[in-house]
Each structure stands twice: as C-alpha cells, then as structure tokens.
Amino acid sequence: MAGRGEPPRFKALMREVGRDNSASRVVVSVLRAESRAAQMLERALAPADLSLPQFNVLMVLAATPGGELPLYELNAQLVSSAPNMSWISNRMEERGLVRKKRDDDDRRVVLIALTESGWKGLAGAAPLVFEAERQLVAGFSRAELTTLGNLLGGLLDGR
Question: Is the pTM higher than 0.90?
Fold first, then answer.
C-alpha cells in the first residue's frame, strides 16, 4: 500500500479505477499473512526434510480412508495446489513417502498412496508444524482465533 505521499497521478488513477482502500488493505494483509505463515512452516519443516506441499500431501493422504487417492482428487484437496504436483509426487515416490500406480479400472488415472515411510515422515514433521502454528497465533485469544477463522472462512466461501 502506498502512503500519504502518493503522487497525484497515482491518486487520480486509483480514484478513476474505483479502488476501495479498505478492500485492498484486507487483501494485501491476507496475502502477507499467508506468506509469513508459509515461511514459518517451511522453516519448521526443514529438519524433517519436507517441503510444505509435501507435508500437505502426507496430511491429506493420512486423513483419507485407505490412505490412497487419485492424483487429481489429491490436488483438489490440497491447501494450495502446486502447479508441479506431478514433479512433487515423483520426488516423494523416489523417497519412498508415497507409492504411485495406475487405476485398474481406468489406466488414465494415477493413484497415490501413503507408505509406511510416509507415515513415519508425517509423524516426525507434524509436531514441528503444529508448534510453528501455535507460535504464529500465540498472541491471539481463543475467541479471536475463532472470529478470525470464521472471517477467513467467509472469504474462502465467497461471501
């Protein structure tokens, strides 16, 4: 956000295009908060040798009955879908965290399944992530966290 010393031409353009400063301030704050949270979680995951997208894959698979999903469905359930999910899942398979195979009924569908090594990786990484989450929101009361969660949930629902 630009400050009070904005050049007149910028001010005029912002007026002309109908910028809502309150809306912009909220959106920029959400984006900056997401960036800060992602950085903290990535740092927390470093000792576990996992990236945030890899951790997210392990969490989604672990929370799925049978621990297996079609790759397209896994991608739809991720916190943020990585444009390189095929590459990420290939690296995870090379490390033994997941297993990939073709669906018996539809050979076009790739299934991705959590392995025992993936469970162990998740067990080691989860406490690191959850501690980082607690640190990130340590200054908020339970009531504030509930309110914030509801507000952000509304933003996600398109309210």
Answer: no
